[in-house]
């Protein structure tokens, strides 16, 4: 099969439907190059003296791993000078990061979780980088947090890189979902899956079942029915997976169907859940919808949520359409 590189793919998409202006194409290629660098750093493991904690906490109050900080720095440095961005925001930084005055500012805003699932780093389980791209508001002068607070439907691109047995970049610019595998020998991203579609039905669900005593009734009902298998109302057996790395769980669902759930629960009723809206749920929801799946917070479409804070959390139910519709319907009864 003729190899198509990420650059060729983006140029041809731009030519076909001009959905990828040159500045956006440049941004995507810079982020993809940064993910290559992160993949290299992650792959060194103990040999790179990058494992373990950094002795600090992020804005979420979570212990930062050395690779969390390294990955964040890689993305900041790669994107500062290109002239395509006005500002960046990251799970690892409390406030937004405007492009320094010494560089030209562009019309895009980039948000990312530089290394999602980092509790898995030291035990060699797949982790990933998640990113989301918005256009800066017309007439914006100095970027503020408010400029980032746009609903997920405003994203012009979203993607993730999964650092697993293969390093794969998954990308959407609103015209379907395409996957690129990193050719480590050539250092290039090669198109390996086109227009990915998530099966509407599944026999596999992903949730951290250790929290089951804290779940609200709709989630308990939905999971219990699957656990009942053939003997219960679903009439079929289900399987369970929980990698505790959203990128890895979503990538499995993208490839073979499934439903991923991180619901709000009684542990912290004031919190809408654990996952962050702007740089985890929104980009993953865009990807899942573009692949024919569905993504809600149990009550409404994630992409329709109007953000009120940069690091706000949201409940997440995403994946095979028919399953997300069912669990969402239980929340409305
Ligand atoms: P728990 C990783 O820390 C993360 O943000 C997601 O990648 C993952 O799905 C979830 O949290 C795992 O959470 O509570 O099972 O450790």
Automatic annotation (TrEMBL):
Its EC number is 3.1.3.11. Its cofactor is Mg(2+). It is found in: Cytoplasm. Binds 2 magnesium ions per subunit. Mg(2+) 1 binds at residues 91, 113, 115. Keywords: Carbohydrate metabolism, Cytoplasm, Hydrolase, Magnesium, Metal-binding. It catalyses: beta-D-fructose 1,6-bisphosphate + H2O = beta-D-fructose 6-phosphate + phosphate. Residues 198-331 form the Fructose-1-6-bisphosphatase class 1 C-terminal domain. It comes from the Bacteria. InterPro entries: FBPase_C_dom, FBPase_class-1, FBPase_N, FBPtase. Mg(2+) 2 binds at residues 113, 116, 280. Pathway: Carbohydrate biosynthesis. Substrate binds at residues 116-119, 208, 274. Residues 5-193 form the Fructose-1-6-bisphosphatase class I N-terminal domain. Homotetramer. HAMAP family: FBPase_class1. Belongs to the FBPase class 1 family. This is Fructose-1,6-bisphosphatase class 1.
